[in-house]
Design a protein that fits this description.
By secondary structure, the chain is α+β, with helices and mostly antiparallel strands. 48% of the residues lie in helices and 24% in strands. Strands 1, 2, 3, 4, 5, 6, 7, 8 and 9 form a 9-stranded mixed sheet that branches. Helix 1 runs parallel beside helix 4 and helix 3 runs antiparallel to helix 4. It is elongated, with a radius of gyration of 25 Å.
Length: 283
């Protein structure tokens, strides 16, 4: 039981650290449309995944080592004859306790992440504005929104999704315009250069360039080897996106030209993140 307590503390520490170190990453997901329910489901799944593997490894190892240690101690006559019985009740109790700890850690961390990320987004909003996200719209609809006098800023973006690279990382592809990059600056910032304009141009994260891009600079080329995007691309911008190293997910911004040539492109798949002017008129 004493060893089990340390195991529970270690699991709890792992769950808390895993979530709190990804606050900015989770904030990015919220900015681009991830709902609180989807975020909760994702974190709960991760917590249960960790718990399952901890239980599987500990029970398997303990089941193998228990009889072996009893046999060794009996042969050495250190504690007399030691008999072994499988602790069914204790293991079941420990399993329930581990699940309860995992759920408790998930709830505590989720409430902290939501409160911090939402507060951070609110602190970086344009003064006197309300925000809204339009999903499933076409590019001309976004252009029409930009012309509305009631809107202070309209950011256009498109989530292409994640693809696994043969080098071991997961590439998270997204298209966004300069307005969207400005809106999301507290979560993902363009620290150098500019957004890509041509099909063979990309903006990469600092983590990707240092770990997989041979420390390429602006104007130099990097090689992508995912299913949809492969070959040499010119770096036009460098992004700052905290939390990528822990998750091994590299943010890569592609141009609209590359987006429209993408095999999975849906003309009605754009999203618009808008700031309303004069929010008091909406009360």
């Amino acid at each position: 039981m004493f060893i089990g307590v340390f195991g529970i503390i270690n699991l709890l520490n792992t769950l808390i650290t895993n979530i709190l170190t990804r606050k900015r990453e989770l904030g990015v997901l919220q900015v681009v449309g991830l709902s609180s329910r989807q975020l909760s489901k994702m974190l709960l799944t991760e917590g249960l995944f960790y718990t399952f593997w901890v239980l599987l490894i500990s029970v398997s190892f303990g089941t193998l080592m228990g009889p072996l240690l009893c046999t060794i101690f009996s042969a050495m006559s250190l504690f007399g004859k030691v008999s072994y019985h499988f602790p069914t009740f204790e293991m079941f109790s420990f399993f329930l306790l581990m699940v309860a700890v995992a759920l408790a850690a998930f709830l505590v961390c989720l409430s902290a992440v939501l409160s911090v990320s939402i507060a951070q987004i609110q602190r970086n909003q344009v003064a006197d504005t309300y925000e809204a996200v339009f999903t499933g719209v076409e590019a001309d609809h976004v252009a029409a929104l930009k012309d509305l006098p009631e809107l202070a800023r309209v950011g256009e973006y498109y989530l292409l999704g994640q693809e696994h690279s043969g080098q071991g990382y997961n590439a998270s592809y997204v298209y966004c315009d300069s307005d969207m990059m400005y809106i999301a600056r507290s979560q993902m910032e363009l620290v150098k250069g500019e957004l890509p304009a041509k099909a063979n141009e990309v903006a990469d994260s600092e983590y990707f360039l240092s770990a997989y891009g041979s420390n390429a600079k602006i104007g130099e080329t990097v090689r992508l080897d995912t299913e949809s995007f492969h070959g040499d691309y010119t770096v036009t911008g460098i992004l700052s996106n905290v939390g990528e190293k822990e998750a091994n997910i590299c943010a890569i911004v592609v141009s609209k030209a590359a987006l429209t040539q993408w095999a999975g492109f849906d003309p009605a798949g754009y999203r618009a993140y808008v700031h309303f002017k004069n929010d008091r008129k909406f009360d």
